[in-house]
Fold these 2 entries.
Entry 1:
Amino acid sequence: MKYRDWIKQWLDIYVKPSVKEKTYINYSTIARVHLIPEIGNYELEELTLPVLQSFIVELGEKGNKLRGRGLEPSTVGVIISVLQRSLKFAFEIGISTAEHTSHLKRPKIMQKNVECFTVSEQKKIESHLLSIAPDKKLGILICLYTGLRIGELLALKWSDVDTGYNFISVNATCRDACVNGTQIRVLSTPKTVTSRRVIPIPKQLKPYLKALKRISKGEYVISGNKEREVSVRSYQKMFSNLLKCLNIKHRGFHSLRHTFATRALECGMDVRTLAEIMGHKNPQITLNRYAHSMIEHKIAMMNRVGKFLQ
């Protein structure tokens, strides 16, 4: 049996009835985009370790067809997981006589450098936001002082905000998707159990949330013209244009979350508290990701130590 025929059978008969629809769609997309085009014509018995490892290497070198470059190691890891599950199950039920995926070498996932805004850049962004009439741009300020992800921000409803403006409850996230050639916004539950969390609102942020509430006519905290839902891509583009207008080096929207975490540590917030606010599984993740990004704080501390030299 060819692998393309097997994986379709595996997905529709064995996977679909036993997993969430979102998981099935993700698996199907991986099969359609990566597995079937590259190794679909192989017979199951032909998928030996050298063939599979060569496929994995190729994914890391030129697996991203749209951009003509390799896929991120984490993405390759997800593809390997689907490949392993499908071939192991084929072996378990006797469709194939051997499986080699247990010996595949996964690409190493390197810790990405965390990019955050400097204190002066942050102040420049904040000064601009506070100088204009309240509108959807205040979502940037919310992220700077709560650490929300962009999907969490755009999925945030007023019903998730405590009536006394003391807490934000993160109950949903959103992403952009293309369905039948049409771009839509998809709401879903947070990606992990710890991502569903309650975040205290700094008292200094409350007046701006209240100002945003006064002009809001819809259920979402961040909404567009005529109270339409805002897509992730359009909000990212708005943020990019804002940085360009302020003559600040471009950084992705996620840098706002990194900036929040870095400022929190610089202010002395303990790592466990920060991990819970960020929605990390454990404090070690937070420490590994952000401890090295506090360069301005480190300089100030080193200069403080250096005073003994005088």
Entry 2:
Amino acid sequence: MKHPWQRWYKMTHPLPTAVLKGYGVYLPQKILLNADLPPALETSDEWIQQRTGIRQRHIAADSETTSTLAINAARNALENAGIAATSVDLILVATSTPDNTFPSVASKVQHGLQAYQAAAFDVQAVCAGFVYALATANSFIRSGQYKTILVIGAETFSRIVDWQDRSTCVLFGDGAGAFVLQAETTGRKGIINTHLYTNGAHTEMLYTDGGASSGDLVGKVRMNGKEVFKHAVEYMSAAAQHALDEANLTIEEIDWLIPHQANSRIIESVGKRLKIPAEKVVITVDSHANTSAASIPLAFHAAASAGKITAGQKVLLVAMGAGFTWGSAVIQL
């Protein structure tokens, strides 16, 4: 039972809430259609669309890196929010494809924005990275340590796929998306809850076969597709339901489900498990492919720009990536 002074303090010092103030994206100009894939892959547009739902993907130019994609998405998000880069307290970049082993992409974003007052670091949870970064930002805002946080998901997966491996190279694309979060102590808007999970027993199911400590500077993506599919449906569905239960919400009260855009069949299976109508599920994997940590903000932007996502609605985010890592978040807009 709370002491009277505790109740008084909570009423007079409400915890700040992380409110979404703006969003932005950046996609490379080059588009690679299924029909444009190398003939040596022995695949077809029909085969890829039937199994993944993917029609095309964006590919970063030789002059572009993950940090340049991230900087462009961040600028667009700040403009959308009407907030100056000099007001940002913290920059978080979710990525598995940094320009270099170090320094962080976030440091390069800070320099690109000239937001030198902001702390900056990367978050690495692969395809679940944006949800992990969002949860980190939410915790910093709730604690009162930071007021304005830029959360970015950015990837150049085209640089680490094996373009001779049909099972993986057709799945991925490049891009970046960003949210601007700001602390507010009034109203009902903001991040309602976040949940993060990891099961390191499955690291061999989805990984790169190289890295600085392994003696190979980069490595290529390797995946056990069947196992990833099975675990993605199970984990994402459970994480989404946990978020709903904790928020005391039903799926009927959710306006949009925005899942990680890995595969249309995974997305459809998660939607069916949650019993959410297909028309309330945002799907952009057809045009973006799997952009890993960038997929959720890219999908959010696509739906918001089309006038589907509007103020006052509730959105449920869910993702799973290598590790396995997965997580969910509920946001009141």
